[in-house]
């Protein structure tokens, strides 16, 4: 199995920025896609952004223009750069790997945005 470890979460004021990292225990170059999800208490987990092995990206409408997903294959790490943060961005952010039908999840990292 693939171990995914998120880091970079924390407290930030509205309008601020954070960069989340997801370090994988194996090569992400051979993984079909990596994605970031988030989940607030009492809410459904939602897709935030996704990047394929070919470099194609997707961002949810709620974060488009503010968040950017990227990957560094040499470091086996995927990033989520979050700018212009809003209180509604507050959630636990999870990294996910996708390869065929196989899915692995990280433990999550808390992001809290104060107003």
Describe the structure.
Strand 4 (33-39) and strand 5 (46-52) form a beta hairpin. The protein is 0% helix and 55% strand. It is mainly beta and 115 residues long. The chain has no helices and eleven strands. Strands 2, 4, 5, 6, 9, 10 and 11 form a seven-stranded mixed beta sheet that branches. Strands 1-3-8-7 form a four-stranded antiparallel beta sheet, with no helix packed on it. The mean pLDDT is 97. The radius of gyration is 13 Å and the shape is globular. 30% of the residues are buried.
The DSSP helix count reads 0
Largest sheet: 7 strands, mixed
Q: Give the ordered list of helices and strands.
A: EEEEEEEEEEE
Arithmetic mean pLDDT = 97
Distance between the termini: 39 Å
In percent, how helical is the residue content? under 10%
* Quaternary class: single chain
Q: What is the alpha-carbon Rg in Å?
A: 13 Å
Q: What share of the residues does DSSP label as strand, in percent? A: over 45%
Give the helices and strands, then pairings.
Elements: E1 4-7, E2 10-13, E3 18-24, E4 33-39, E5 46-52, E6 57-59, E7 67-72, E8 77-82, E9 91-99, E10 102-105, E11 109-114
Parallel strand pairs: 2-11
Antiparallel strand pairs: 1-3, 3-8, 4-5, 4-9, 5-6, 7-8, 9-10, 9-11
Characteristics:
mainly beta, seven-stranded mixed sheet, globular, 115 residues
Summarize it.
The chain is an all-beta fold and 115 residues long. It has strands at 4-7, 10-13, 18-24, 33-39, 46-52, 57-59, 67-72, 77-82, 91-99, 102-105, 109-114. Helix content is 0%, strand content 55%.
């Amino acid at each position: 199995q693939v171990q995914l470890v998120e880091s970079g979460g924390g407290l930030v004021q509205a309008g601020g920025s954070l960069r989340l990292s997801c370090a994988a225990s194996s090569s992400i170059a051979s993984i079909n896609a990596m994605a970031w999800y988030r989940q607030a208490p009492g809410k459904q987990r939602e897709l935030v952004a996704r990047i394929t092995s070919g470099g194609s990206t997707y961002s949810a409408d709620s974060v488009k223009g503010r968040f950017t997903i990227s990957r560094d294959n040499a470091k086996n790490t995927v990033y989520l750069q979050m700018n212009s943060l809003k209180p509604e961005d507050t959630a636990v952010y999870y990294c996910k790997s996708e390869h065929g039908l196989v899915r692995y999840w990280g433990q999550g990292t808390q992001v809290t945005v104060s107003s």
